[in-house]
Amino acid sequence: MDLYAAGPAIAAAAAAVAAEEGGAGIQLNLFWILVASTNFVLFLVILTIFAWKPVTKTLDDRRARIEQGLKDAEQARLDLEHASIVAAEQLAAARREAREIMERAQRVSQEARDADIAATREELERMRARAAAEIEAEKSRAIADLRAEVTDLAISAAGRVVRESMDGERQRRLVEEFLAEASVPEARP
């Protein structure tokens, strides 16, 4: 006989035994209740020791890692914000410093240009004064040469006109008179 086919027969026999013993209600067997309760408590203790504690430990470790990761991420965000603020401040300071350097360089350049222009003007003024002095000296020299030549020509002309020889005193007086007459038109210009 097959157990599968015997299943309904066993169930019917169990129901007949239950009906003979006392009726149609549920009967509680204290022994089997204690055995089932002990099995359940033993299973719960074994499950707690071997499954629950490692699972909760793993979950706690994972929660701690996640919390640490979140704290690290928040700290990294704060550090990044702080670094960007510091970088912006450094960039602004570098720009200010570059602007100051440019302004100083422009001032120094302008001062050097002004000094060069002043030095050039002074040199031109010295050259002009020297040229004016040289012109005046050359003019005086030319006038002196011209007077000497005029004097020689006047003496020579006077000697021919007079046909006599003049002494040194007379020649000097005549030259001085001639020069006095010659310098009168020169003073009029």
What report would you give on this structure?
This protein is an all-alpha fold and 189 residues long. Helices cover 91% and strands 0% of the residues. 0% of the residues are buried.
Short key terms for the protein model shown above:
disordered C terminus; rod-shaped; mainly alpha
Give the SSE order as H and E letters.
HHH
Q: Tell me how many strands there are.
A: 0
Please estimate the helix content.
over 70%
Share in β-strands: under 5%
Tally of discrete structural domains = 1
Structural class: mainly alpha
- Largest sheet: number of strands, sense, barrel closure: none
Low-pLDDT windows of residues: 185-189
Number of DSSP helical runs: 3
What secondary-structure arrangement, pairings included, does this model have?
Layout: H1 3-21, H2 30-162, H3 168-187
Offer a quick outline of the entry.
The protein has 189 residues and is an all-alpha fold. It has helices at residues 3-21, 30-162, 168-187. It is rod-shaped and about 200 Å long.
